[in-house]
Automatic annotation (TrEMBL):
<keyword id="KW-0378">Hydrolase</keyword>
<dbReference type="GO" id="GO:0004126">
    <property type="term" value="F:cytidine deaminase activity"/>
</dbReference>
<dbReference type="InterPro" id="IPR016193">
    <property type="entry name" value="Cytidine_deaminase-like"/>
</dbReference>
<protein>
    <submittedName>
        <fullName>Cytidine deaminase</fullName>
        <ecNumber>3.5.4.5</ecNumber>
    </submittedName>
</protein>
Length: 148
């Protein structure tokens, strides 16, 4: 449990140090993903003139982890409204929850809390009534790539 807390604190530290470097003024956001082999992947959202083609902040880091063929254990998304605003943790949207489930229901994600504390829950805790509960695990397993 202590190791989990160390990982979560390290992810948050990396996020709040990265945002002012990448976004010195105005809005800023970053996602940090931790993998089973102790790597950290960082990504930002793609800024486009057509917001209908934007991607979530987490997507780049997920793609990097997938490219490296490593299992994701944690995901954290942190934003701020401008350079004078406090940092906020954003729970993953439903689409990102679906993407993260590729690595299993035990992936831990940072979630938004009323007291703005750093808190992680598993995907299973975040969405206990997920649609995949209607199917046996072995039916779903063939959709996942076996990670070595």
């Amino acid at each position: 449990m202590e190791q989990q807390r160390i990982i979560e604190q390290e992810m948050y530290r990396r996020a709040i140090e990265f945002i002012p470097k990448r976004y010195p003024k105005g809005w800023g956001g970053v996602a940090i993903i931790h993998s089973e082999d102790e790597q950290y992947f960082t990504s930002v959202s793609i800024e486009t003139a057509n917001s209908s083609v934007d991607l979530c902040i987490e997507v780049g880091a997920m793609c990097e982890a997938h490219k490296c063929n490593v299992r994701v254990t944690h995901c954290l998304c942190v934003v701020r409204d401008d350079e004078n605003s406090p940092f906020k943790v954003l729970s993953p949207c439903g689409v990102c929850q679906e993407r993260l489930r590729f690595w299993g229901v035990d992936v831990k994600v940072g979630v938004t809390t009323p007291d703005h504390s750093l808190h992680f829950v598993t995907l299973n805790e975040l969405q206990p009534y997920h649609w995949t509960n209607a199917y046996p695990e072995e039916e779903l397993e063939h959709y996942r790539t076996v990670l070595t």
